Amino acid sequence: MRPSDVLIKPVVTEKVNKATEKFNRYYFIVDKKANKLEIKKAVEEFYGVAVAEVNTAVMPGKAKFRFTKAGFISGKKPSYKKAIITLAEGETIDLYANM
Q1: Distance separating alpha carbons of residues 41 and 92, to the nearest angstrom
Q2: How far is CA 59 from CA 6, 30, 62, 83, 97, in A?
Q3: Smaller CB count within 10 Å for the chain: N or C?
Q4: Do the strands 80-87 and 25-30 form a parallel or antiparallel pair, or are they unpaired?
């Protein structure tokens, strides 16, 4: 797979920013079929950094309900795979540079 196929988007939240500052970890939404070696290779190619560790988690889809004027509506949020990338000492990724 190409790096653009493996990495879907970075996760940018306050919780992730704290983990980035404290532990040098970055979170990405990745393709569900990608394994840790493919994710590591994609991050190293795409951002030009050395990756120390890759952890993954498949987040299950959740049922969502809401009450509207039209009545009770139920649906489902899709599941996704999340990768936690720990970079080598002294490495950083500037996620805001390419915007």
Answers
A1: 16
A2: 16, 11, 9, 10, 28
A3: C
A4: antiparallel
Q: In one letter, which amino acid is 23?
A: F
Residues across the chain? 99
Q: What is the mean pLDDT of residues 35-51?
A: 95
- Residue 2's pLDDT is 84
Per-residue confidence (pLDDT) for residue 85, from 0 to 100: 97
pLDDT higher at 96 or 36: 36
* Three-state secondary structure string covering 63-89: EEEEEECCEEEEEECCCEEEEEEEECC
DSSP states of 28-57: EEE-TT--HHHHHHHHHHHH---EEEEEEE
Asked if residue 55 lies in contact with residue 37, where contact means CB atoms within 8 angstroms, the answer is no
87 CB neighbour count, 10 Å cutoff = 21
